[in-house]
Amino acid sequence: MSDASYIDDGQSPHIPVADPSDYIRLLKPRVMSLVVLTALAGLLLAPVPPHPLIVFTAILSIAVGAGASGALNMWYDADIDAVMTRTQTRPIPAGRLDGDSALAFGMVLALLSVFTLGFATNWLAASLLAFTIFFYVVVYTMWLKRSTPQNIVIGGAAGALPPMVGYAAATGDISLASIVLFAIIFVWTPPHFWALAILKHDDYGRAGVPMMPNVLGTDRTRTEILIYSLLLAPLAVLPWLMGFATAIYGVAAILSGLYLVWLAAQVYRRREGDAARRASLKLFLFSISYLFMLFLILVAERVAHIAGYL
């Protein structure tokens, strides 16, 4: 294993010494980047712009909390990760990091993030962050993921909470606008992950994870993907209709939403062979860009508004 060295004194068992990059990988940086962006959008919705130091501390705390969730998820799911092709190279199943180290790392980061956010901003935001970590690790990872094909639907609440955490950090309150952002991410999650689940049907089957394609079949999953996409497209336009986003956002949301629905329709129609696989892959990849684009526009517009350009 090229990414790790081992302690060997001739008597002790081989103990893996992780590379710093392995700890970074535990944080799930790509997921963290989306969490940071969506939390920043919620934070910038505050009627009174928060102090830059508050913005920095809040975003750092939320990012660390997301990383803690990722580390604890990888700790608990090490047995599943070892079976699935796409996760076998993660630090724990690959043998570069032991589970106890990952658990300790995740718990320290979780406590640090929650208490830092509480002392730096307010305890409503800290409580929401603590609930987000708890929901992702305990409710989703430990329970839902292994027990129901609705795991992604219910568990998606954890990934949808960062805008509410961000808004609460800036204001000490929860607004309808932050709830709308929560709803967009919540409804986005099933079609995004089910497109991947169709592609990784065999992987999830080997691991015994009851994803919808494995339990209810790919045809049912394709129908659900289309239904959620049809709900998501108009929902994503609400920030413009409610007045906390401009027409630029509105046009982008309408056009990208129509394309998302078209891709979901292709997934629904193409059910066999390479055409089906390509359709699912296109939807999965575009769905990532779709959510990033919407929240990036929101953040850019709010920054421009605070700076006096809008």
From TrEMBL:
<feature type="transmembrane region" description="Helical">
    <location>
        <begin position="225"/>
        <end position="242"/>
    </location>
</feature>
<feature type="transmembrane region" description="Helical">
    <location>
        <begin position="97"/>
        <end position="117"/>
    </location>
</feature>
<comment type="function">
    <text>Converts heme B (protoheme IX) to heme O by substitution of the vinyl group on carbon 2 of heme B porphyrin ring with a hydroxyethyl farnesyl side group.</text>
</comment>
<feature type="transmembrane region" description="Helical">
    <location>
        <begin position="280"/>
        <end position="300"/>
    </location>
</feature>
<dbReference type="Pfam" id="PF01040">
    <property type="entry name" value="UbiA"/>
</dbReference>
<feature type="transmembrane region" description="Helical">
    <location>
        <begin position="31"/>
        <end position="48"/>
    </location>
</feature>
<feature type="transmembrane region" description="Helical">
    <location>
        <begin position="123"/>
        <end position="144"/>
    </location>
</feature>
<keyword id="KW-0808">Transferase</keyword>
<dbReference type="InterPro" id="IPR030470">
    <property type="entry name" value="UbiA_prenylTrfase_CS"/>
</dbReference>
<dbReference type="InterPro" id="IPR044878">
    <property type="entry name" value="UbiA_sf"/>
</dbReference>
<dbReference type="GO" id="GO:0005886">
    <property type="term" value="C:plasma membrane"/>
</dbReference>
<feature type="transmembrane region" description="Helical">
    <location>
        <begin position="248"/>
        <end position="268"/>
    </location>
</feature>
<feature type="transmembrane region" description="Helical">
    <location>
        <begin position="54"/>
        <end position="76"/>
    </location>
</feature>
<keyword id="KW-0812">Transmembrane</keyword>
<keyword id="KW-0350">Heme biosynthesis</keyword>
<keyword id="KW-1003">Cell membrane</keyword>
<keyword id="KW-0472">Membrane</keyword>
<dbReference type="GO" id="GO:0048034">
    <property type="term" value="P:heme O biosynthetic process"/>
</dbReference>
<keyword id="KW-1133">Transmembrane helix</keyword>
<dbReference type="GO" id="GO:0008495">
    <property type="term" value="F:protoheme IX farnesyltransferase activity"/>
</dbReference>
<dbReference type="InterPro" id="IPR006369">
    <property type="entry name" value="Protohaem_IX_farnesylTrfase"/>
</dbReference>
<dbReference type="InterPro" id="IPR000537">
    <property type="entry name" value="UbiA_prenyltransferase"/>
</dbReference>
<comment type="pathway">
    <text>Porphyrin-containing compound metabolism; heme O biosynthesis; heme O from protoheme: step 1/1.</text>
</comment>
<protein>
    <recommendedName>
        <fullName>Protoheme IX farnesyltransferase</fullName>
        <ecNumber>2.5.1.141</ecNumber>
    </recommendedName>
</protein>
<comment type="similarity">
    <text>Belongs to the UbiA prenyltransferase family. Protoheme IX farnesyltransferase subfamily.</text>
</comment>
<feature type="transmembrane region" description="Helical">
    <location>
        <begin position="176"/>
        <end position="199"/>
    </location>
</feature>
<feature type="transmembrane region" description="Helical">
    <location>
        <begin position="151"/>
        <end position="170"/>
    </location>
</feature>
